[in-house]
Give the backbone structure.
Amino acid sequence: MKHLFRSLLVIALIVCCNFQQALAQQQPPIPIDPNVRIGKLDNGLTYYLRKNNLPANRADFYIAQKVGSIQEEENQRGLAHFLEHMCFNGTTHFPGDALKQYLERIGVKFGENLNAYTSVDETVYNISNVPVNTPGAVDSCLLILHDWSNDLTLDPKEIDKERGVINEEWRTRMSAMQRFQEKLLPAMFAGTKYATCFPIGTMDVVMNFKPQTLRDYYEKWYRPDLQGIVVVGDIDVDAVEVQIKKLFADVPAQPNAAKREYYPVNDNKEPIVLIARDKEQPHIQAIVFNKHKATPDSEKDKIGYLVENYATNLIGNMLNARLNELLQEANPPYIYAGSYDGDFFVAKTKQAFTDIVVCKEDAVESGIATLLREMERARRFGFTESEYQRARAEYLRNLESAYNERDKRKNDEYINEYVRHFLDNEPIPGIENEYGIISQIAPSIPVEPLNMMMQTLVTDTNQVVAIFGPEKENLKMPTEDAIKKILQDVKTEELTPYVDKVSDEPLMRETPKGGKIISEQKDDVFGTTMLTLSNGVKVIIKKTDFKADEIIMKGVSPGGSSLFPDSEIININGLDAVSVGGLGNFSAVELEKVLAGKRASVGYGIGDKTESVNGYCSPKDFETMMQLTYLTFTAPRRDDDAFASYKNRNKAAWLNQEMNPMTAFGDSVTYALRMGHPRTLRVKSDMVDKMDYDKILAMYQDRFKDASDFTFIFVGNVDIEEMKPLIAEYLGTLPSINRKESFKDNKIEYRKGVYKNEFIREQETAKASNFVSFIGTCKYDLRNTILMDMTGQVMDLVYTEKVREDEGGTYSVYVGGNLSKYPKEIAGLQVIFDTAPSKREKLMKIIFAEIEHIAKEGPSETNLNKVKEFMLKKHTEDLKENGYWMGSIDEYLFTGMNPIKDYEQIVNSITAKDIQKFADDLFKQKNEVEVSMISPEKE
């Protein structure tokens, strides 16, 4: 390793002279993590195996295919994605839906643990969080991967059933942005296969292709030389390797197979400008692509590639900081702007330094010009030393945190790395090697080579500008010539270098004094320590070993915005604006700068019933989190320009909300449930000017001027003895006036009885969006909470089978339920789905018929056992999460319900009869809301 570091330091010196040339020189290879076993079978199939114990008794099984929609012929458009669906509809060893049925029986949930995706260049399937302590689970999952590789049945009857599902998936996804992207491809990638490569394909092909056409694609492209198996988890690596060699040996190699092409992207000397409008697009967005050469896969195993990624990451972060700084102006030039370097849209054979700006309607050209100007400023003058130091400190701190968590990494983190290594040859050095390499080389790289690199990322050629906005009267969109002129003018504009305003002032000049811990006691309910402070603040501490570099915090107090009158609803909705001013002596921009290199963050929330502060930190940055908490209570900073910017940006962002059809749907659902109560109405653009900064600050200060009824919860890798002095110092000195208060019931009632609203809303794509809700009184306790969860999951299984699979009527049916304790104990179950208008009536009959069935007969034992297996498996996993313990302690404090105690016992005890009775008790109260928004088929 010492020899390697010497080589790295030499590279750093070369980099100072010529960054790009240095990366092309002879370089040391990036080591491969020794803890992953990589092998290749004689037929060409590659496998990656790793032993990992987090979560315990779990493993993830993936198969990645180096093929996607780019391999389709014209008569196959959409079939790569269709084939992905068919992998769940019958294989040699798992006919019909036996695969899904088996996995659900062992607690692997379809959609959540069992899934796949298809993109332009790849298709990846996963079976995640498999309970490998279940007998036969490992062998069965490997057999499934085998069948996906080479043994799909592709039954014509199953194909015909799936056509409707994919048609409905297309319908659900066919938003304004999807239409825009489909318009972009032919212009951005003219004359290449990328021009028509969207995975969803065309519905003409999907609904009419012959089964043999799908089989042709499968047999041509699903082959072992293009497939990678990845298994990570609590496994015996030797045994799994033996099984893979045995199982996959019968998959034939194809020595004369079609070549897997990676298609190039054309360069363009003159800018390509695309402008489009849509009746359902609510805002104006511009994307500027600066195309440049992609690093070939064959060169990604050299150290220079890690350095290149380090550099582009920091360049993006530094430019984003500048763009964010402009948002603080009273009249900001745009609503949002951001930059990153990555694939050129759908093509990975070309990279692009990509910039996005969301514009205000009256400042489209100036918003785009501002974005281009900042890119040009960075290209021409580079970044400052102080900007670079902050960005580097932040990058190294995040890398250090990942290194500290090296023994706490979960299966999916390794899976993602190995899948990318197989598909794109992305490096997999392991965090130990990566941390060692970068932490040695980064301090030796000055800012100058990054500034040189910026000049290669943004050039005078290879630019593409795509602009998308609403189709509405009186909206003036820029022309192609206008955009080209802006591009040209910015290149010749007289600019000055960016001036980085920094301060060496500490976060807090003086440490508060006088706080004390007056009592300490152990609590066996959650295994916590409770401290009571001299100002009345209570502190609950739960030590865990789930994460090495994480402590999470929540401080909460009853009251919330419920204590303000309904007449203040506009200001209530503006309470999040306090944060835009910053804290103490620091603006929001300055605060971000002073916290660079620290892993600590604190925010606040004022909900209907509580006010809270939430945060996280590394153990070594605990004092910083305490200082931020103290300032959040005592020193919110007034910044009139920042507040004016907040109003300006939100007013512009909300101006065209109603153009999005789902806004009308959401408004109709809210009205149907809450009958127009003022606290439930959506904030609109014309309300923003009515926000009163003085009142908002006063309301905020009212909620945080008394900490005596706050309870703070800390969960994570805590050292209680080290924390106690800091807790006393900062939390013990928070203001306290010892007021006694709780939240107020503002009578935000749910509608009673039966209500139905069916309305027409013309859309570009014919669609019926449907919402069904059942509300009723219900005792708030753990057993009923579990019963509600089970009822929703059982109904999800039923509707997946009856509505999606049998009818091909929808892509998915969402079923969810919840219980609330305050102000009244109430339960609610919701069903939401999209479908074709012509199918709506039939599907609604099925929805209500199955509701009636579960209330009369209860669930099948098969479905009940599937749900139990999943819930028990997930609960075991949740018990190893800091967030789960935080939520459980918070729940117990607020409602008195302990979500952990007796959970497994209750789940195991529940019968089909219990669910039947629970469902019947809810549904027979006959509080039903049904909302359908229909866009009819166009004639």
Confidence is low (pLDDT under 50) at residues 1-17. Residues 782-806 form the longest helix (25 residues). The longest strand covers residues 347-359. DSSP finds 30 helices and 23 strands in the chain.
